[in-house]
């Protein structure tokens, strides 16, 4: 097969940190408050700006709290679990590495006694209807390492007694979220906004704030300082929005402000969702005719439009031992990396061997379309190599 002539303008298809917004240059950071305290008047104003812009773009209810915390999305999820869990039984749904990691943390480290675990293999999703409205619920909206998302939030009761805690890092800004069904939402702006890594974002409903204020002083486990948001037992105004417990990078904050300004300029969250959907659609059109690849997600209803995971379905590939499958898939992605066509598109280490392509809003559909031509080229070369080995 002849090598394609057209390459993606941006070869960055990593699932985190993800591609910067179109047109980004370091000049976007020229007004960053580097060398300044985040507790200065100007520092607090910039932190408050990023919180307010996120709230606006997402269309959050006025009484929901939002702010920056330490440790990326992982830190935000851990903070929520360590400060909020305990009073009620917990239902946890895990179908990829991170969701299953939250199960480990709750059972092994917090050692909660009343935990129900609902698991599924890569490409599948557990029975969400088993969620008990009397329990706290923990789930991932969009599985980064499996390419599987929740199809909707109808399974979460509107009159629930427990809290619904959602790890939304690969879903927020890309799939619509019914905030009335969610009490805690966590993410990192390094995903759909293409921001820099290391910072998490925590969103709390009034019910979650109330639980935190009542629960935090009484948790039976040691609580790290960076998790202790309440001052004198109350989450005071500004304690989440701009009075951060740890020191954030003002360079990263400036970058997030830039990404949010871009999001506003193209039409806000609806436009971001539309861009992700368009990128997925480009891959869907290609998969229909490729003949050698398919989506890892079992059904279209649970197919992610950001971290799109593909499996290789060619007969010769499926007959390989698992270790050799991984090598073959990496030969395909390695060729694309060497050509400067697509960087960092290997499947997640613990997931089935294949390809993972980020299709979030900062990626251009035209680049996804250009990439598909190269996918066929690289696959053709690797399949011929294995065919020659079989002949030998």
Question: Could you characterize the architecture of this molecule?
Answer:
- The structure is a single chain.
- This protein has helices spanning 41-58, 72-84, 97-109, 206-215, 250-266, 269-290, 315-318, 322-338, 365-391, and strands spanning 65-70, 90-94, 115-119, 136-140, 142-143, 148-149, 164-167, 184-187, 199-204, 293-295, 307-312, 354-358.
- 36% of the residues lie in helices and 14% in strands.
- The chain is an alpha/beta fold.
- Helix 8 packs across helix 9.
- It contains 9 helices and 12 strands.
- The model has no long low-confidence stretch (mean pLDDT 96).
- The strands form 3 sheets. A 7-stranded mixed beta sheet has the order 1-9-8-7-4-2-3, sandwiched between helices.
In the CATH hierarchy, the architecture of the largest domain is 3-Layer(aba) Sandwich
**C-alpha termini separation:** 22 Å
Question: In sequence order, what are the helices and strands, one letter per element?
Answer: HEHEHEEEEEEEHHHEEHHEH
Average pLDDT level? 96
Given as residue ranges, the uncertain stretches (5+ residues, pLDDT < 50) are none
What is the radius of gyration computed over CA atoms, rounded to a whole number of angstroms? 22 Å
Shape: globular
Number of helices: 9
Query: What strand order characterises the main sheet?
Result: 1-9-8-7-4-2-3
Instruction: Count the domains.
Output: 2
Question: Helices and strands: which structural class?
Answer: alpha/beta
Main sheet, how many strands, which sense, barrel? 7 strands, mixed
- Helical amount: 25-40%
């Amino acid at each position: 097969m002849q090598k394609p002539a057209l390459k993606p303008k941006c070869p960055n298809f990593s699932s985190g940190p993800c591609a910067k917004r179109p047109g980004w240059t370091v000049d976007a950071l020229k007004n960053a408050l580097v060398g300044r305290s985040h507790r200065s008047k100007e520092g607090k104003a910039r932190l408050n700006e990023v919180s307010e812009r996120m709230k606006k773009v997402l269309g959050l209810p006025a009484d929901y709290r939002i702010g920056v915390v330490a440790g990326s999305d992982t830190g935000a999820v851990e903070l929520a679990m360590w400060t909020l869990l305990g009073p009620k039984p917990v239902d946890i749904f895990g179908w990829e590495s991170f969701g299953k990691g939250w199960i480990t943390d709750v059972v092994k480290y917090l050692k909660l006694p009343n935990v129900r675990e609902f698991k599924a293999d890569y490409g599948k999703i557990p029975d969400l209807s088993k969620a008990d409205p009397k329990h706290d619920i923990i789930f991932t909206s969009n599985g980064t390492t499996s390419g599987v998302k929740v199809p909707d939030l109808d399974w979460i009761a509107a009159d629930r007694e427990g809290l619904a805690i959602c790890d939304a890092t690969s879903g927020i800004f890309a799939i619509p979220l019914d905030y009335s069904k969610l009490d805690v939402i966590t993410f990192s702006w390094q995903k759909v906004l293409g921001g820099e890594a290391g910072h998490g974002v925590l969103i709390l409903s009034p019910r979650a704030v109330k639980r935190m204020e009542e629960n935090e002083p009484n948790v039976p486990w040691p609580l790290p300082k960076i998790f202790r948001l309440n001052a004198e037992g109350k989450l005071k105004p500004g304690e989440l929005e701009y009075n951060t417990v740890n020191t954030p990078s003002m360079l990263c904050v400036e970058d997030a402000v830039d990404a949010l300004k871009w999001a506003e300029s193209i039409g806000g969250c609806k436009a971001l969702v539309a861009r992700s959907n368009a990128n997925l659609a480009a891959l869907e059109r290609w998969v229909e005719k490729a003949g050698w690849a398919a989506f890892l997600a079992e059904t279209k209803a649970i197919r992610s439009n950001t971290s799109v995971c593909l499996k290789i379905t060619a007969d010769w590939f499926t007959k390989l031992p698992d270790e050799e499958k991984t090598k073959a898939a990496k030969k395909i992605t390695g060729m694309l990396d060497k050509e400067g066509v697509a960087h960092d598109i290997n499947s997640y280490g613990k997931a089935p061997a294949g390809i993972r392509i980020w299709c979030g809003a900062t990626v251009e559909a035209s680049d996804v379309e250009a990439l598909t031509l190269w996918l066929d080229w690289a696959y053709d070369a690797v399949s011929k190599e294995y065919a020659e080995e079989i002949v030998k």
